[in-house]
Predict the 3D structure of the following.
Amino acid sequence: LTDMHHCYHAQLTDMHHCYHAQLTDMHHCYHAQLTDMHHYYHAQLTDMHHCYHAQLTDMHHCYHAQLTDMHHCYHAQLTDMHHCYHAQLTDMHHCYHAQLTDMHHCYHAQLTDMHHCYHAQLTDMHHCYHAQLTDMHHCYHAQLTDMHHCYHAQLTDMHHCYHVHCVYGRKKHMLISRKA
């Protein structure tokens, strides 16, 4: 029994030492792997950081190059538009003056025509007025002569009538009175 007990304790001690030895190995191995992973992670992080900055620098240079091109293109277009605008403005100005000159000539031509037409109408009206005045004058004199002749004829008739009725009638009345 004592031998068995000593043997059991001896095995138990061996198992305990073996377990601690394995545990120590596993612990060292774990720390070694953890250190390797940490170094690898930092190496990848550094690479990614450098790559990111390189891409950022490229994008920045590309952006500035595009911005410069756009700026030059914009100024070129602006210059073209400015020249085009001035050319159109000059054309419009010349066209406006040409139209103004045409309107001025047309206006004077119409004014001259109206003036000639007005004088022609005025002359016609003047001749027509004098012709009507002459007709009215002749007509008036003819009516006046007719009225004068008619008046004298009526006066003569009245005079004869007066002598026949009044003078003869009064003499006849006086004769009748004397006989009575």
In short: The CA atoms of residues 129 and 135 lie 10 Å apart.
